[in-house]
Amino acid sequence: MLTRAILEGEEPAEATPVLETAIDEVNGNTGDHSEGEPASTGVLPVAGGDPFETATNPRPRAGSGEGGTVADLSEDPETGDDEQSDDEKGHDEQGDDEQGDDEPSSGLRNAIEWSAVIVGALVVALLIKTFLLQAFYIPSESMEPTLEVGDRVLVNKLSYDFHDVNRGDLVVFHRPETDPSDDEAIKDLIKRVVGLPGETVESVDGHVYIDGQPLEEPYVPDGVTTTMPGPVTVPEGQVFVMGDNRENSSDSRVFGPISQDLIIGRAFLRVWPLSQIGFL
Q1: Which of 164, 209, 171, 210 is nearest to 188 (CA)?
Q2: What is the mean pLDDT of residues 202-219?
Q3: Average pLDDT across the chain, whole number
Q4: Which of 39, 58, 165, 194 is buried most, with the most CB atoms less than 10 Å from its CB?
Q5: 227: closest CA among 211, 209, 204, 249?
Q6: What is the per-residue pLDDT across 29-46, written as a single tens digit (0 to 9) for each?
Q7: Contact call for residues 190 and 147 (beta carbons, < 8 A)
Q8: How many folded domains does the chain comprise?
Q9: Which CATH number covers residue 177?
Protein backbone atom coordinates (compact mmCIF):
# COMPACT_ATOMS: atom_id res chain seq x y z
CA MET A 1 0.00 0.00 0.00
CA LEU A 2 2.83 2.39 0.70
CA THR A 3 4.38 1.68 -2.70
CA ARG A 4 1.09 2.23 -4.43
CA ALA A 5 0.54 5.48 -2.61
CA ILE A 6 3.92 6.77 -3.64
CA LEU A 7 3.34 5.83 -7.26
CA GLU A 8 -0.01 7.53 -7.33
CA GLY A 9 1.44 10.60 -5.65
CA GLU A 10 -0.73 10.32 -2.60
CA GLU A 11 0.54 11.13 0.80
CA PRO A 12 1.14 7.87 2.52
CA ALA A 13 -0.97 7.14 5.56
CA GLU A 14 0.66 6.66 8.87
CA ALA A 15 1.86 3.08 9.12
CA THR A 16 0.26 0.90 11.70
CA PRO A 17 2.77 -0.36 14.22
CA VAL A 18 2.14 -4.04 13.70
CA LEU A 19 4.72 -5.20 16.16
CA GLU A 20 3.41 -2.96 18.90
CA THR A 21 -0.13 -4.07 18.29
CA ALA A 22 0.90 -7.71 18.46
CA ILE A 23 2.67 -7.12 21.73
CA ASP A 24 -0.37 -5.36 23.14
CA GLU A 25 -2.59 -8.28 22.20
CA VAL A 26 -0.24 -10.74 23.79
CA ASN A 27 -0.24 -8.67 26.97
CA GLY A 28 -4.02 -8.60 26.88
CA ASN A 29 -4.16 -4.80 26.29
CA THR A 30 -6.23 -3.48 23.33
CA GLY A 31 -7.56 -0.04 22.80
CA ASP A 32 -6.86 2.92 25.00
CA HIS A 33 -6.49 2.32 28.73
CA SER A 34 -4.57 3.61 31.59
CA GLU A 35 -1.13 2.24 32.24
CA GLY A 36 -1.05 -0.75 34.60
CA GLU A 37 -4.85 -1.42 34.31
CA PRO A 38 -6.29 -4.34 32.33
CA ALA A 39 -8.51 -3.61 29.39
CA SER A 40 -12.25 -4.01 29.88
CA THR A 41 -12.42 -6.67 27.21
CA GLY A 42 -9.41 -8.62 28.42
CA VAL A 43 -9.30 -11.83 30.49
CA LEU A 44 -7.72 -12.29 33.93
CA PRO A 45 -5.15 -14.99 34.40
CA VAL A 46 -5.82 -17.43 37.21
CA ALA A 47 -3.03 -17.05 39.70
CA GLY A 48 -0.93 -20.17 40.06
CA GLY A 49 -3.16 -22.05 37.64
CA ASP A 50 -2.97 -23.41 34.15
CA PRO A 51 -1.73 -20.71 31.74
CA PHE A 52 -4.61 -21.63 29.45
CA GLU A 53 -7.18 -21.27 32.22
CA THR A 54 -9.07 -18.05 32.71
CA ALA A 55 -11.52 -16.77 35.29
CA THR A 56 -14.36 -16.68 32.81
CA ASN A 57 -13.48 -20.01 31.25
CA PRO A 58 -12.02 -22.26 33.96
CA ARG A 59 -10.38 -25.42 32.78
CA PRO A 60 -12.05 -28.52 34.23
CA ARG A 61 -10.00 -30.74 36.58
CA ALA A 62 -10.53 -34.45 36.96
CA GLY A 63 -11.79 -35.52 40.34
CA SER A 64 -12.63 -32.02 41.63
CA GLY A 65 -16.00 -30.44 42.27
CA GLU A 66 -17.42 -27.17 43.44
CA GLY A 67 -16.22 -25.77 46.73
CA GLY A 68 -12.95 -27.71 46.61
CA THR A 69 -14.57 -31.08 47.46
CA VAL A 70 -13.78 -34.34 45.77
CA ALA A 71 -16.68 -36.11 44.12
CA ASP A 72 -17.07 -39.84 43.80
CA LEU A 73 -16.72 -40.61 40.13
CA SER A 74 -18.70 -43.80 40.49
CA GLU A 75 -21.62 -41.96 42.06
CA ASP A 76 -24.79 -41.47 40.12
CA PRO A 77 -25.13 -37.67 39.74
CA GLU A 78 -28.91 -37.95 39.88
CA THR A 79 -29.32 -40.21 42.91
CA GLY A 80 -26.31 -39.11 45.00
CA ASP A 81 -24.62 -41.11 47.75
CA ASP A 82 -27.73 -41.42 49.93
CA GLU A 83 -29.12 -44.29 47.89
CA GLN A 84 -27.63 -47.76 47.70
CA SER A 85 -27.79 -50.27 44.93
CA ASP A 86 -29.91 -53.36 45.29
CA ASP A 87 -26.77 -55.50 45.65
CA GLU A 88 -25.48 -53.33 48.50
CA LYS A 89 -28.84 -53.43 50.29
CA GLY A 90 -28.99 -57.19 49.93
CA HIS A 91 -25.46 -57.52 51.28
CA ASP A 92 -26.31 -55.36 54.32
CA GLU A 93 -29.48 -57.34 55.01
CA GLN A 94 -27.53 -60.58 54.73
CA GLY A 95 -24.95 -59.23 57.20
CA ASP A 96 -27.71 -58.32 59.67
CA ASP A 97 -29.19 -61.80 59.36
CA GLU A 98 -25.79 -63.39 59.99
CA GLN A 99 -25.25 -61.17 63.03
CA GLY A 100 -28.64 -62.19 64.36
CA ASP A 101 -27.80 -65.86 63.80
CA ASP A 102 -24.59 -65.43 65.83
CA GLU A 103 -26.47 -64.33 68.97
CA PRO A 104 -28.04 -67.74 69.78
CA SER A 105 -24.76 -69.53 69.06
CA SER A 106 -22.92 -67.10 71.34
CA GLY A 107 -25.42 -67.71 74.14
CA LEU A 108 -25.12 -71.46 73.69
CA ARG A 109 -21.34 -71.23 73.77
CA ASN A 110 -21.45 -69.23 77.01
CA ALA A 111 -23.81 -71.77 78.56
CA ILE A 112 -21.49 -74.62 77.59
CA GLU A 113 -18.47 -72.80 79.00
CA TRP A 114 -20.20 -72.07 82.31
CA SER A 115 -21.41 -75.66 82.53
CA ALA A 116 -17.87 -76.90 81.98
CA VAL A 117 -16.57 -74.57 84.71
CA ILE A 118 -19.23 -75.74 87.18
CA VAL A 119 -18.68 -79.41 86.41
CA GLY A 120 -14.92 -78.95 86.69
CA ALA A 121 -15.30 -77.20 90.05
CA LEU A 122 -17.52 -80.00 91.33
CA VAL A 123 -15.06 -82.64 90.19
CA VAL A 124 -12.17 -80.82 91.88
CA ALA A 125 -14.21 -80.40 95.07
CA LEU A 126 -15.12 -84.10 95.02
CA LEU A 127 -11.50 -85.12 94.55
CA ILE A 128 -10.38 -82.84 97.37
CA LYS A 129 -13.10 -84.14 99.68
CA THR A 130 -12.33 -87.75 98.84
CA PHE A 131 -8.55 -87.73 99.02
CA LEU A 132 -7.31 -84.53 100.66
CA LEU A 133 -9.54 -82.37 102.87
CA GLN A 134 -13.02 -82.56 104.34
CA ALA A 135 -15.00 -80.30 106.64
CA PHE A 136 -16.88 -81.73 109.63
CA TYR A 137 -19.57 -80.34 111.92
CA ILE A 138 -19.36 -80.73 115.71
CA PRO A 139 -22.78 -81.99 116.93
CA SER A 140 -22.14 -82.57 120.64
CA GLU A 141 -20.39 -81.21 123.74
CA SER A 142 -17.91 -84.08 124.12
CA MET A 143 -14.95 -81.94 122.99
CA GLU A 144 -15.70 -78.83 125.05
CA PRO A 145 -14.05 -76.49 125.81
CA THR A 146 -11.74 -77.12 122.82
CA LEU A 147 -14.61 -77.40 120.31
CA GLU A 148 -18.14 -76.12 120.80
CA VAL A 149 -21.39 -77.37 119.33
CA GLY A 150 -21.78 -75.93 115.83
CA ASP A 151 -18.07 -75.51 115.17
CA ARG A 152 -16.72 -76.68 111.85
CA VAL A 153 -13.28 -78.18 111.43
CA LEU A 154 -11.14 -79.08 108.45
CA VAL A 155 -9.68 -82.59 108.37
CA ASN A 156 -6.48 -83.60 106.57
CA LYS A 157 -7.04 -87.04 105.09
CA LEU A 158 -3.46 -87.51 103.94
CA SER A 159 -1.87 -86.76 107.28
CA TYR A 160 -1.40 -90.36 108.41
CA ASP A 161 -0.20 -91.50 105.01
CA PHE A 162 3.11 -89.81 105.82
CA HIS A 163 3.48 -90.30 109.58
CA ASP A 164 2.05 -92.26 112.49
CA VAL A 165 -0.74 -91.14 114.77
CA ASN A 166 0.62 -88.97 117.58
CA ARG A 167 -0.61 -88.54 121.13
CA GLY A 168 -2.73 -85.42 121.48
CA ASP A 169 -3.98 -85.48 117.85
CA LEU A 170 -7.64 -84.67 117.24
CA VAL A 171 -8.86 -87.46 114.99
CA VAL A 172 -12.12 -87.94 113.11
CA PHE A 173 -13.05 -91.59 112.73
CA HIS A 174 -15.95 -93.77 111.70
CA ARG A 175 -18.12 -94.79 114.59
CA PRO A 176 -17.01 -98.25 115.78
CA GLU A 177 -19.45 -101.15 115.95
CA THR A 178 -18.70 -101.52 119.66
CA ASP A 179 -20.27 -98.14 120.40
CA PRO A 180 -23.46 -98.83 122.39
CA SER A 181 -25.08 -95.56 121.33
CA ASP A 182 -28.33 -96.03 119.44
CA ASP A 183 -28.12 -92.70 117.59
CA GLU A 184 -27.97 -93.87 113.98
CA ALA A 185 -27.59 -90.28 112.73
CA ILE A 186 -24.06 -90.12 114.12
CA LYS A 187 -21.73 -91.74 111.60
CA ASP A 188 -18.41 -90.16 112.55
CA LEU A 189 -16.84 -89.06 115.84
CA ILE A 190 -14.06 -86.68 116.83
CA LYS A 191 -11.85 -87.42 119.87
CA ARG A 192 -8.33 -86.84 121.15
CA VAL A 193 -5.68 -89.57 121.03
CA VAL A 194 -4.52 -90.42 124.55
CA GLY A 195 -2.95 -93.89 124.32
CA LEU A 196 -0.80 -95.36 121.54
CA PRO A 197 -0.30 -99.02 120.53
CA GLY A 198 1.33 -101.09 123.27
CA GLU A 199 0.73 -98.53 126.04
CA THR A 200 -1.30 -99.05 129.19
CA VAL A 201 -3.84 -96.35 129.98
CA GLU A 202 -5.38 -95.95 133.43
CA SER A 203 -6.89 -93.38 135.76
CA VAL A 204 -5.32 -92.66 139.16
CA ASP A 205 -6.99 -90.17 141.50
CA GLY A 206 -8.90 -88.64 138.61
CA HIS A 207 -5.82 -88.20 136.41
CA VAL A 208 -4.72 -90.15 133.34
CA TYR A 209 -1.58 -92.24 133.61
CA ILE A 210 0.34 -93.79 130.70
CA ASP A 211 2.52 -96.76 131.64
CA GLY A 212 2.48 -95.57 135.24
CA GLN A 213 3.36 -91.95 134.43
CA PRO A 214 0.90 -89.02 134.80
CA LEU A 215 -0.12 -87.44 131.50
CA GLU A 216 -0.11 -83.67 131.23
CA GLU A 217 -3.37 -82.53 129.65
CA PRO A 218 -3.53 -78.72 129.34
CA TYR A 219 -6.69 -79.02 127.22
CA VAL A 220 -8.68 -80.41 130.19
CA PRO A 221 -10.12 -77.65 132.43
CA ASP A 222 -8.88 -77.48 135.99
CA GLY A 223 -10.96 -79.47 138.44
CA VAL A 224 -12.22 -81.96 135.84
CA THR A 225 -11.52 -85.59 136.74
CA THR A 226 -11.13 -88.62 134.51
CA THR A 227 -12.57 -91.94 135.58
CA MET A 228 -11.97 -95.38 134.05
CA PRO A 229 -13.14 -98.87 134.97
CA GLY A 230 -9.56 -100.17 134.98
CA PRO A 231 -6.22 -100.18 133.14
CA VAL A 232 -6.41 -100.84 129.37
CA THR A 233 -3.50 -102.00 127.24
CA VAL A 234 -3.82 -100.69 123.69
CA PRO A 235 -3.46 -103.42 121.02
CA GLU A 236 -1.20 -102.95 117.99
CA GLY A 237 -2.84 -101.04 115.17
CA GLN A 238 -5.24 -99.33 117.58
CA VAL A 239 -5.36 -96.16 119.67
CA PHE A 240 -7.14 -95.09 122.85
CA VAL A 241 -9.24 -91.92 122.44
CA MET A 242 -11.11 -89.62 124.83
CA GLY A 243 -13.18 -86.47 124.60
CA ASP A 244 -11.84 -83.33 126.31
CA ASN A 245 -15.13 -83.07 128.21
CA ARG A 246 -14.29 -86.12 130.31
CA GLU A 247 -17.50 -85.99 132.31
CA ASN A 248 -19.73 -85.95 129.21
CA SER A 249 -18.07 -88.02 126.50
CA SER A 250 -18.64 -91.49 125.09
CA ASP A 251 -15.17 -92.66 124.03
CA SER A 252 -12.68 -95.53 124.42
CA ARG A 253 -13.65 -95.80 128.07
CA VAL A 254 -17.02 -97.03 126.73
CA PHE A 255 -16.35 -98.78 123.38
CA GLY A 256 -12.64 -99.57 123.85
CA PRO A 257 -9.62 -98.71 121.68
CA ILE A 258 -10.37 -98.09 117.99
CA SER A 259 -8.63 -99.46 114.93
CA GLN A 260 -6.48 -96.96 113.07
CA ASP A 261 -8.21 -98.13 109.91
CA LEU A 262 -11.33 -96.29 111.10
CA ILE A 263 -9.52 -92.96 111.23
CA ILE A 264 -10.58 -90.58 108.45
CA GLY A 265 -7.97 -87.94 109.18
CA ARG A 266 -6.59 -85.35 111.56
CA ALA A 267 -8.58 -82.25 112.43
CA PHE A 268 -6.10 -79.39 112.14
CA LEU A 269 -8.10 -76.21 111.52
CA ARG A 270 -11.29 -74.67 112.85
CA VAL A 271 -12.97 -72.74 110.03
CA TRP A 272 -16.18 -71.72 111.81
CA PRO A 273 -17.15 -69.51 113.52
CA LEU A 274 -15.06 -66.83 111.87
CA SER A 275 -14.15 -65.30 115.21
CA GLN A 276 -12.55 -68.61 116.25
CA ILE A 277 -10.67 -69.52 113.07
CA GLY A 278 -7.34 -71.10 113.91
CA PHE A 279 -5.22 -74.21 114.07
CA LEU A 280 -6.08 -76.92 116.57
Answers
A1: 171
A2: 96
A3: 77
A4: 194
A5: 204
A6: 444 444 444 443 333 344
A7: yes
A8: 1
A9: 2.10.109.10
Q: Characterize the bridge pairing of strands 232-233 and 200-204.
A: antiparallel
pTM here is 0.61
51-80 per-position pLDDT tens digit: 444 444 555 554 444 433 333 434 444 444
Residue 32 lies in a domain: no
Q: Which residues are catalytic?
A: 142, 191
Q: Is residue 234 part of a domain?
A: yes
Nearest partner of 172 among 160, 185, 190, 186, judged by Cα: 190
In the sheet that holds 207-210, the strands lie side by side as 213-214, 207-210, 200-204, 232-233
Containing domain of residue 186, as a range?
135-279
